[in-house]
Amino acid sequence: MNHKQTLAFLLSLALLPALLFSCGNGDEEPVRTEAGTQVQTEPETPETEDPTDYEALSALPFQDLAESPAGDFTFTESNGNITITGYTGSDTKLRIPSSINGKPVTGLADGALRDQTGLTVLWIPDSVTEFGEEILKGCTDLYALHTPLPGDADKAYLGYLYGALSYQTNNVAELRTLDFLELGGTLTTLPAYALYDCNDLVCVRLPESVTSLGEFSLYRCESLKYINTEGLQAVGRYAFGLCTSLTELTFGASLSEIGLGALENCTSMRRLTLPFVGGSAGENRYLGYVFGAADPGFSGGFFPSSLREVILLPGCDSLGDYAFYECSALRSVSLGDDLTSIGVRAFSGCSGLRELVLPDSLQTVREHAFSGCSALGSVQFGNGLTTLGVQAFMGCTALTEIALPSSLTALPNSCFSGCTSLQTVSLGGVRTVGANAFYGCTALSAVTASGAVDFEQGNELAERLLAG
Question: Which positions ≥6 away from 152 have C-beta within 8 Å?
Answer without folding.
Answer: none
